[in-house]
Amino acid sequence: MTAVVAFKQLQSYLETQVLGQPTLTEHLLIAILADGHLLVEGPPGLAKTRAVQALANGIEADFQRIQFTPDLLPADLTGTDIYRPESGEFIFQQGPLFHNLILADEINRAPAKVQSALLEAMSERQISVGSTTYPLPALYTVMATQNPLEQEGTYPLPEAQLDRFLLHLSLDYPDAETEQKILRLTRNERIQGTSTSAEPLTQEAIFAARKELLTLHMDDAVERYLVALIMATRQPQLYDAELATWLAIGASPRATIALDRSCRARAWLDGRDFVTPDDAAALLHNVLRHRIILSYEAEAEGISRDEVINRILELVPAP
User: Fold this and answer.
1) Does 41 share its domain with 143?
2) Are residues 167 and 231 in the same domain?
3) How far apart are CA 48 and CA 51, in angstroms?
4) 68, 211, 223, 270: which one has the fewest Cβ atoms less than 10 Å from its Cβ?
């Protein structure tokens, strides 16, 4: 069985467990392949936790869900030194961040000190407690869910932490037909029990697939297109005067890297050995949604970030 076929089987399994969210299941695999983290925003009850649990069942990895609350402390995530009276020593007890797949539920309900602890884990793949630094597993992905900021009791994530997320998805409710399928699925599971993936992917297969992504062909014209899409967020006046009034701060070079890695993962999952401009267009919203900052004029006019990204796709010519 080739690696692509194995991942497609995993994707099919995820789609049987999480109905009506094909974008979520696809982007979970893209995040795993691109070695990145995922931020998901949307109403409750859309199977975000279930999706990560299903992914953990489909690969050789352990899963941990963390409920973020305003009274959470950094040590609740990282772990802490525990004193053992019988030996007179301090023994480090690992926290929930020491797992392969982390679901940070309602991440923007935790204060800045807790968010900074997660930031180190996401960006450096390590945790510091006191004077000691502990490495995290080689396979490490954080999927965070976020409440809309207009709700009470939330803390906006700092731009530095948002930039660490590879992709930012925005989910919506399923349609009536899918809702009926969800109802039948949950009813059958209560009768028969939850199904599991028959052949979990090994971590070695994931690491091998990540290396294979780097060998995919990307034409110079496509590469220039990726760079131009990001540069349009920093120099919008070169494309459109109105677009320039909408953007206050553009995306960092990390956005270009994220777009490149995500496009390669999407092309690989599609069974191609080359990247196309369509890959960039399909992923640009999720790459830029959390990385651009709108101006006061845009907010006053009710312009959304997705509308700004749509304008960029219209203005930047594709090869």
Assistant:
1) yes
2) no
3) 5
4) 211
